[in-house]
Amino acid sequence: MSQIIPKGFSDLLQQPIFANLATIMPDGGPQVTPVWFDYDGTHIIINSAKGRVKDRNMRRDPKVAVCIMDPKNPYRYLEVRGKVVEITEEGADAHIDKQAKRYLNLDKYPYRTPSEVRVLYKILPERSSSMG
Amino acid sequence: MSQIIPKGFSDLLQQPIFANLATIMPDGGPQVTPVWFDYDGTHIIINSAKGRVKDRNMRRDPKVAVCIMDPKNPYRYLEVRGKVVEITEEGADAHIDKQAKRYLNLDKYPYRTPSEVRVLYKILPERSSSMG
After folding, report:
1. Positions of E strands within B25-72
2. What's the rounded Cα separation, in Å, for the pair A129 and A83?
3. ipTM attached to this prediction
4. Where does A7-126 sit in CATH, by number?
5. Of chain A residues 22-81, which have a CB less than 8 A from chain B?
6. Is B7-131 in CATH node 2.40.110.10?
7. What is the bridge-based pairing of β-strands B73-88 and B63-70?
8. Which of A44, A71, A129, B88 has the greatest count of CB atoms below 10 A from its CB?
9. B96: part of which helix (H) or strand (E)?
């Protein structure tokens, strides 16, 4: 467990809850959308698809922030700021099915479109803030 | 109602739900935290306090993004990207009490600290994205 994540908030990284992922647009402004996430003990892992706004943003600028609210208490949250240190298609198909199991209890990710290329983004936490 | 907000999502601006507000740090990276918000039909209004990270960020760089998830359906959300067009302390004290009524059903905002100076940030929507 990274020292950057306060111990009292690491539970939020283990649950199948939504994160809000903020990335940087070409004009330098932020973009923020809800995403599923995963955590490998070091990196926060996002699974998206090639060509989406957040995909293009993270390829251009690796600086991101992730906010995870406790679904049982909206006044408790963990914010992690960090950098995308790896972008890979390897394992992304299997991983989105694993996420579908975790979030939807389905064996296969059901929203797949024929042409989409799944991509994994591994975020290394550098700073955090928390409340609650 | 601004034409930038899709009609089918304007309900999300009327409810006392949390928004995730993304702002820009001094290093150009994003910061994102949950906030209460208000909507005057044109601007998304955030009430924060002087000296906080998001206050310093919005004074330095007016580019922000706001994501509002439907509490009844996490796969439905509205993201608004825009600019802070006004920052003022005028009316901010009365407004945070109004927000406490809206979000907590309390007549007075209960988290006030003696030294804090409340500030209103009025965000003009420029782009939106939505899902669901």
Report:
1. 30-35, 38-39, 44-49, 63-70
2. 16
3. 0.95
4. 2.30.110.10
5. 22-25, 27-34, 53, 61, 63-67, 69, 74, 77, 79, 81
6. no
7. antiparallel
8. A44
9. helix B92-104
Residue A106 tokens read as 């389905």
DSSP line for A79-131: EEEEEEEEEE-TTHHHHHHHHHHHHH--SS-TT--TT--EEEEEEEEEEEEEE
Q: Which has the closest alpha carbon to B83: A27, A55, A54, A80?
A: A27
Q: What are phi and psi of A117, to 5 degrees?
A: -110, 115
Write down the pLDDT at residue B3. 83
Contact call for B69 and A22, based on CB within 8 A: no
Give pLDDT tens digits for B53-63. 999 999 999 99
| Alpha carbon distances (Å) from A77 to A27, A36, A65, A68, B101 | 28, 16, 13, 6, 22
Domain ranges of chain A: 7-126
Residue recorded with tokens 């009490």: B97
